[in-house]
Amino acid sequence: MSSGIYAAMAAIMRDVEPICKARRNAQQGFSFRGVDDVYNALHPIMAQHGVVCLPECLSRDAAWRETAKGTALCHVTLRMRYTLTASDGSSVSGVMDGEAMDSGDKATSKAASIALKYFLFQAFLIPTEADNDPDATTHAVAVGASVDILGAPAPAEPPRAAPPKSARPTAPASGTPVCPKCGGAMYDNSARRAEEQAAGKPKPCPAYKCRAGKWNKDTKQHEGCDGVIWPAHGEDDTRKPQAAPQPPPGGSDGAPINYDTAPVAAVKSAIVAGRKRKGLTGAAEWHTWLTENSFPTAGTFSESELRAVARAIDDIPF
After folding, report:
1. What is the pLDDT at residue 211?
2. Taking the alpha carbons of 233, 224, 109, 10 in that order, is the dihedral positive or negative?
3. Of the CATH numbers 2.60.120.10, 3.30.390.80, 3.40.720.10, 3.10.20.70, which one belongs to the domain with range 4-123?
4. DSSP string, 126-148
5. Domain residue spans in the chain?
């Protein structure tokens, strides 16, 4: 290998200016240098000295995680190799890891940008005022809430599928708070409510709040289920509400249904009630039950199949 690439890198290091931390992380209140700042500083200098940078992804690991507020996040870790090549064909390579989380489809691109940024920082020793750069977005991740989305189990914890953002929460286990609107799990704010009452706050928070709802800080509106539980007059704030009663066989109101003549909407409601009653609210449990009862697990049910599923889930013989 000739020394052309090393001479070119040394020239770039002489010409590059310090990159100040002009950007701000709104969640944690610190300044950082973005990847665009690195591009703007290095692009003209690398072009002047005839150096190009080519990326190669060596490995990618991805897992679903959940924030403390219940939001599903895709966590991606990349191992990247970057090759710097001079105009005479000489080159040198380096490896850098990058990781990022995102609630949409940007986790991989974020991780790649972070890996490239830090590779360039370290390859050219670009000056900065401190080494404290977790980047612009920060997520508070709940302990133990992760699963490998590529098929391999996450270390030291069982895999579980991350719910889509719009999914309705499954009914909680017996004895836990139940949302009065959607029947899903709730956040326990009873301790916080007691603290706010003790501090004399005029309008303390509700004791329980549905996990399916969230506040959109961009639109300033509440999205999803807005179910809450306020303690009744004179009730102890720390007392948890009773679990929702299991729905009886038949429709959601318990009325008997003739599955041969009932409207399709009523049959669908009966299936939903039956799934709750049998603990089949999860996708995996429902798929297993359909398989065991010789029903199709893919596609859309025909009307006759819907009526057959309703009979089976109500334990009505054919």
Report:
1. 81
2. negative
3. 3.30.390.80
4. ---S-S----S----EEEEEEEE
5. 4-123, 166-244, 246-318
- Paired tokens of 281: 């609210």
Given a cut of 80, whether residue 280 has pLDDT beyond it is yes
Instruction: Note whether 86 and 92 are within 8 A (CB).
Output: no
Task: Please state the three-class secondary structure of 256-311 as a single string.
Answer: CCCCCCCCHHHHHHHHHHHHHHHCCCCHHHHHHHHHHCCCCCCCCCCHHHHHHHHH
pTM, two decimals, is 0.40
Which residue spans within the chain are E strands per DSSP? 23-25, 30-32, 52-67, 72-85, 91-102, 141-148, 186-188, 208-210, 214-216, 221-223, 228-229
Question: What's the rounded Cα separation, in Å, for the pair 281 and 277?
Answer: 9
Backbone angles phi, psi at 291, to 5 degrees: -65, -45
